Amino acid sequence: MCGIVGYIGSKTDIKNALETLKKLEYRGYDSAGVAFVKRGKIQCFKRVGQINNLIETIGKKSAKICICHTRWATHGKATEENAHPIMSYNNNFSVVHNGIIENYKYLKAKIGAEKFSTSTDTEVICNLLEYLKGDTISRVIECESLLEGSYASLIIDKCNKYIYAIKNKSPMYIACGKKGTTIASDISCLNAEYFYNLPDHTVAKINKKEITFYSNGNIIDLPLCKNIHNFESNDLGQYKTYMQKEIAETNKTISNIVELYSSSNNYINENIFKGIKNVILTGCGTAYHACCLGANWIQKNLKIPASAYIASELRYSEPILDDSSLMVLVSQSGETADTLAAGELAKDKGCRIITITNVGYSTLANLADVCLPLCAGAEIAVASTKAYAAMLAVLYLLSHATSGFIKSLQNLKEICQKFNSDNISKDIVKKVINSKRVFFIGRLDDGVTASEGALKLKEIAYIDACGYFAGELKHGTIALIENDVVVIAIITNPNLKQKTLNAVEEVVSRGAEVIIITNDKSITGYTTIFIDTAIDEELNSLLSVYPLQKLACEVSLSLGFNPDKPRNLAKSVTVE
Ligand code: AGP
Prior knowledge:
Blueprint: E1 3-13, H1 14-22, E2 31-38, E3 41-48, H2 51-58, E4 62-71, E5 86-87, E6 93-101, H3 104-111, H4 123-131, H5 136-146, E7 149-157, E8 163-168, E9 173-176, E10 180-184, E11 194-197, E12 202-206, E13 211-215, E14 218-220, E15 225-226, H6 242-248, H7 250-263, E16 278-283, H8 285-302, E17 306-310, H9 311-314, E18 325-331, H10 337-348, E19 352-357, H11 363-367, E20 370-373, H12 386-398, H13 405-415, H14 426-433, E21 437-442, H15 445-461, E22 465-469, E23 485-491, H16 497-508, E24 513-518, E25 527-530, H17 540-558
Parallel strand pairs: 16-17, 16-18, 18-19, 19-20, 21-22, 21-23, 23-24, 24-25
Antiparallel strand pairs: 1-4, 1-10, 2-3, 2-4, 5-6, 6-7, 7-8, 8-12, 9-10, 9-11, 11-15, 12-13, 13-14
Helix pairs in contact: 1-2, 3-4, 4-5, 7-12, 7-13, 8-12, 8-15, 12-13, 14-17, 15-17
The structure holds 2-deoxy-2-amino glucitol-6-phosphate.
2-deoxy-2-amino glucitol-6-phosphate binds near residues 287, 339, 383 and 572.
């Protein structure tokens, strides 16, 4: 969701900075822009749609300093006017911004609403800079102190000497190279061994040779961090889409996890749960589904009360949190705003915090007492697939922290070769495409997998889908079962097999088409996708979600969509 790249160095093609910005395309955006100084004036170019439109417009233009942005519209429509960079009312400053300025209405009124020409909250930053007095750095410091909300912002003025960065609750990284310095909102696009990770409420004044950091108006030192962001090649290789590639990388991800967590007990050990009386797991979307399974397993295996919360609800629902609570924050990106807010609440309440994330330098990783890596490598497609499997794998290990940990690693290793590599049959894809809506059903862990299967189908194939615990069907939803409805039943729990099959029979008799995902070869007479069985029943959830991810991807492709970049969605949701 929104991306920022700034470059300062020798005169270079602006196209190079835009190529770096392209590495952030996966985050989702609907417009792009760039600003730089030419003959004492700030020039600003913006285009709705793909970065390539902007690259075409920019051609061979060059500059020593530029700031670029991809915008995912929040305040104001996706138009050129609202795209970033945004110019101040006297054209002395230009700003790119990720996040939301929560007090923008108040500041706008203070500056004078007639001076504003866009519908964005961002405009308040550049107009505040114009409105304040003093040299640019004093204005930037004062401006930062007046803003409320989340922001990672780059600022340039007409002097063309510095880029200024400000930051709160939204990431910003600075990497110095031989030729110049690159500033970005996402570490994955910085090709550098060392970088600075800007803390909240810090201002950076950056020129080609040096960077000065300010906190509360005073100059401070910041440590250089080593870039261990060892993502494998982001090339598609033999695959048409990242989603297909990433699903296929699931087994590699699980092996990485087994390797890392076997090699050191710094990550998971019995001390994690010492003195803990309750566990709250939280995340959004797919990560929330992982939390649901994690809560089941922690409660079952560790006998500690555990519950999963949707992160956007958590801070409004007054959960029981104190210094005997453990909060587990689950997030692929490590930047999801709602999960971060939940983590901040937990911190205030004195809870122990674990973050399970794919991005080791993320805001959520920094917030935690312990960070458990997902080892999934870059996940480019918006739909989370291999990272979901990784979340389940790490949560499974966590649920064995105090006993049976070695066995749990072996169990995990054993499933690596068990992911069903068969293609989803054309017949099944057709059934789903021709359906009016799709219901996914299952019991206990399979019920959670049902919700995850439905989320995938909705987000990348735009098919009306819903996941239900099978026992709930009779309490309302069955009224929607008729011809042209597809019901996908997940059955991996032998104890509840017959219960789910009863629900299947009920929907068949009301005209639904049924597809069953199961490891039980005795289930016959239905359209079925058979999966392998894990030694530990809990791990069947990793094997059963795999064909559901592939199914959603195949349906999306067959309908002519790009599953990597679904409409209206961003990979990393950094605003509430
Ligand atoms: C997953 O397919 C979705 N794109 C979405 O639900 C995602 O899982 C959610 O936004 C949370 O993201 P995070 O894991 O980066 O925190």
